[in-house]
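@channel sequence for tomorrow's demo:
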Amino acid sequence: MSPSFESTVLDEVLEPVTRCFTPDVARQIVALRAATTLQVRLDELAKKANDGEMTGEEREQYEAYVEAIDLISILQAKARKMLANGGKS
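structure tokens (generated this afternoon):
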């Protein structure tokens, strides 16, 4: 599945979820950041990927993180849009 198609599908599937956002929830979602320990692990995995030193298990873990980050990114974009529209979806 291409990344743009996957993002479009996620965007469509998450639309009903974002209708549940209140302005406060939207602000909290926009402010979400990875924990320091998670960011360190992501950086390690990214370096291994770039250096061609990643094991199969590490690749699966990295891909799972990337998918989760994509999900959060879409939710954050929807939350920003809601806040820019004065708190209306």
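heads up for whoever presents: Residues 3-84 form one domain.
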